[in-house]
Task: structure prediction
Amino acid sequence: MASSITSRRRRTADRLRLYISGVHGGANPSPGVGIARSLRTAFPDAHLVAVDYSPHSSGLLWPDFDEGLVRPPWQAIDLGAHAAFVASRLSEGAIWISGLDLEIRLLTRRLRSRTRLPLPPWTTIQMAAKPPFRLGRLLGIGLPPFLLLATASDVDLGRFCRLHGWPLWVKGTHYDAVPIWSWYEAGPVIAQLAEAWGGKDQLFLQAHVAGQDVTIAFAAWKGELLGAAFLEKLDRTHQGKVWSGQVSRVSAELERRLRRLVRLTKWSGGGELECVRDQQGNLWLLECNPRFPAWIYGAAQAGYNLPALLVQAITGRLSAKATQHHRASFTRVVVEVPAWAP
Result:
C-alpha cells in the first residue's frame, strides 16, 4: 500500500499532475530531482509527486515536489500490484516519468497503454541492455571489445586479458561496473558480481578505452526526436558520475544518427548514451539508458530542458521556453534540506 508522506500545494481538477520515480540523491543519484527541477521551471503550476521505494530516499524532501509517495521496498513489492497502481494513476490523467531501470523494465512489459507513460517498446529496452551492440550498429558508433562471460572458458578469459591489457571492466548487463587491474583480481570480482546478479550469464568483460567521458541526453516521443544535449565531464566522482560538466549542442552528424535511432526503435521518453571520446576524437559507446540522466537539470540550465519538451509533446501544453541553446557549464554542490527527526 502506498503512503502519502507530504502535500504542500492545493490540487485543482485541471492541474498537470506528474509522478516522478527514482528521487534518491546519494553518491550514485537517481534522476528524479533533476527532472522535477526541470519541470518546475517549465510548468510552475504543475503538481509534482516524488515516488520512491524507501522512506529514507533523500529526494522525497526536495522542495520542488508537492507530494511524496513511498511504495513498498522493491525487494518485497508485488510487481503486478505495482503495475496496476501505476495504471490507475495514468487512468486518472496523470503522467508517470520513471527514473529507475528496474521499474522501467517492469512497466514496459506489463502496461500496453503508453499515452501518459513515456517509455520505449520492450524490444528497444532489450537492445539497450549492456553491451548495447545492436544500438551501436544503428548509431554507427563502435563498442569497446567485450567478452560475454556466460560461455567463456578460463582460456578465453586469459586470451582477452593478454590482448587488451589492464585495466579491464567487469560489467553487469543491467548494473555494476568494476575495474580490474590484474589477473589475480579477475576471478574474485567475477565471482562477487555473479553472486550479486544471478550468475555469470549476467556479466561481461570489456576493454578499457582511454579518453574523455561524454554523454548524450535526449528526449523523444513516438519515434520523433524532441531534443538532445551533449555533456563533457570535467570532474567525476570515484564512481565515474559527473560532478561538473560542460553542456553544448549535439553535432549535426550525431543528431542525424540519433534521430534515425529514435525513429527505428520507436523511442518514447528520456534517453542517455554514455560514451568515451578517444584521443583521435572517435566515440565509443559504453551504455544506453532508457531514461533521463541524473545531470538533466544541468542541461536545462544550459537551455536544453528535455523533460519539459517531453511533457509538452505528451500534453500539448506550452511550457516556458525550453530550447534556448548556448554553451554552459555546471557543477554540483552539497546542500541541506529540512528533514524529519529520527
